[in-house]
Amino acid sequence: MSSTVPGAAGYGANASVLASQYESITCAEVYRDLLHLFPVQPCAVLDIGAGSGRDAAELARRGHQVVAVEPTAELRSEGQQIHRALPIEWIDDHLPTLGALRRTNRRFEVILLTAVWMHLDQGERHAAMEALAELTADGGEIFMSLRHGPIPEGRRMFDVSAEDTVRLAARYGLRCDCEVEREDMLGRSDVKWSFLALRKQAASK
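Above: the chain sequence. Below: its structure as tokens.
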């Protein structure tokens, strides 16, 4: 059964093709402009909307303890199969609230949202940013990509600016460490991406 999460519409039916597409690009290529901010020492990592598990797998290979959240059952199954040799913890949960994960009271030093944020409307983005801030350990970093361009047929997407995202993050104690705009890695001339690194500031005592 495909997920009923609105933002995941269209992904289940094409899971195998999408997984192959995702796996054709490396995590290092995707996050090349932010890699200098990634921790070297093993830490707790959360990959939200993990898809095929490409990024989760790369960080697991580096020794990090990785939780991969993917609401689309078909994609989650693809990822579990492709990366079955790696110690990735897969969870069925979704934004904006990530209720199942938050009930565990876990905190993460790194959170990834690769091509995820554009699936949330304005109200959902507020709820999601609150959830992300809660899940991020003090001093931890959120890495996310924002898609800009025409919306594919059958997909629920919103073109959200980096400026609006940084402004919203600041309301929840998240400071922008880095902002980069990039071309589309799949060669689509009408699609651009913004990459953000948002750091959770420690609460004042």
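The domain at 6-200 is CATH 3.40.50.150 (Rossmann fold).
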